[in-house]
Fold each of these.
Amino acid sequence: MKGHFIVCGMGHVGYRVVDLLGRLGETVTVITQSARAEWLHAVQARGVQVRIGDAQDERLLVEAGVREAQAVLAVTDQDLVNIEIALDAKRLHPDIPVVVRLFEQPYDDRDVGV
């Protein structure tokens, strides 16, 4: 596969990203540890390849075709996991665009030493 998108994580955000890319006619591979059964069936029915596993496992990124992919989207619900996936993807394919989902953590003045 060449020129496809790799989406890491298929929770609420990941499913919507995969759905949108599919409606745009893009080829998608998903790496996810888990997802709702109905979402898995829906995306697989559209031809999306799904690999069940941890996208932090470099082997899965390679098997998903990171070196030939158009972009990687790390959209799990864990910031550090998404950052690690992004760094691994860039190490394996330095020119690949990577989109990373990050949450804003609430804080107050005491958290930043003000």
Note: The two ends are 51 Å apart (CA to CA).
Amino acid sequence: MIRVELPFHLRNLAHVEREVTVEVEGPVTVRSVLDALEVRYPVLAGTIRDHGTQKRRPFLRFYACEEDLSNEPPDTLLSEDVVSGKEPFSIIAAIAGG
């Protein structure tokens, strides 16, 4: 099971706690985690990625093991710590300011 941390507005939309778990078949990539998340919580479809292009929404960032994966290709493999559930895959709302 992959642990996924969600920002406040997505938690409210999906009516879940800060962290949810999803099961991913095959290689665990950014894309496969987001696909599994959208299958388990259909209300989130289109909120994290654009429906048509599948690109990340501008004010969301992806992190795993303290590494920013926001601009990495969607098929980037996630670390073993995320795969094993030791570390979460985090979706964070961007914060403006200095």
Note: DSSP finds three helices and five strands in the chain.
Amino acid sequence: MPEGHSVHRIARQFQRNFVGSRVTVSSPQGRFAEGAARLDGRVITAAHAVGKQMFLEFDDGLWLRIHLGLYGAWDFAGEIVMDLPEASVLDAAGENSLRSIGAPRRARLRMSEDDRVTDAPVVFPADPVGQVRVRLLSDTVVADLRGPTACEVLDPQQVETAILRLGPDPELDNSDAARDRFTNAVLRKPTPIARLLMDQSVVSGIGNVYRAEMLFRARLNPHTPGKTLSLSAARELWADWGFLLHTGIETGQMMTRHDLVGPAIAKAMRNRADRHWVYKREGLPCRVCGTHIVLEEMAARKLYWCPQCQA
């Protein structure tokens, strides 16, 4: 499932390429035909990400809410334009950083957890391929949405209600108030911290990768009840999430190791296996203590951790 950094990057893509444009909205698949008809011909006026959800505002006061879930992804084609940091890279597996979105060009671009990209020229706009739930088409760019968990038209009050259900997102609000909202939610619950970090009502945007890596970076046992954490430990988790989220947005990569310097950083940015402390390293020796990394299931999700460093 795309984690918070991916959704923020997709929102940036819409901000740069769609905001201010009048769009044709359709549902080639047919499942969103009614919603598409309500938005068709309107101007997109804003694009916001909150955790794993994105909200597109239209000039008639309606909003499109999208939650990609496990299988959702956006494909973009046309004259794609993006402001990109020079440090961004494309890894060996094809995972796309911000740079690979590139300067104005003809391209097809997939934005999901893996952000696969193909540079082959295409006819614009190409016919929809596969089960496209929503197609947004401007004069220069087309965005196709496939397989989302949620895709619905909301009015402003419904948008406010949906956002209020979500925990704080440090990329949107890194204030003391947002931090305290997170720490208060954690410190009053007996729920294991590994489950709390995945609870989108507690904090927005954290998924399986960031959950495992944050707990290792904090040397926290994932089964620790939230209410037994110290205030400083809870605050450090919040600060670390803000740091990792911003890094992911800017680089396009889920870089969670802080022990790398020089060429090792470049190598890790190009190879996902070098980027993490524990995620998908079950049975391999811990990079710190040598103990084999453990894989277990918690709330139907895979949990990776070191039983020594996180004892």
Note: The two ends are 28 Å apart (CA to CA).
Amino acid sequence: MLDPVRTARTRVNELDNVEKTFIGLKLEHFMRDMLDVPKGLRDLKIAGLDVGIKNTVGGNWSFPLETYRSSEP
């Protein structure tokens, strides 16, 4: 994503939001492949439970209400 040869960007904070989102998607796919689990309703399914993968490039975390319910882990 940084592609310093073509963009001269060498730091994640120089990326736009779409590029940062793409990094998150790549991490999601990497984790699913590494754990050898299927895609679920959220990001992946482990032992029959839908699990969301969250990551950040800063110190902020935000979990929107629609990503979880009180009856689920």
Note: The first strand starts at residue 44 and ends at 46.
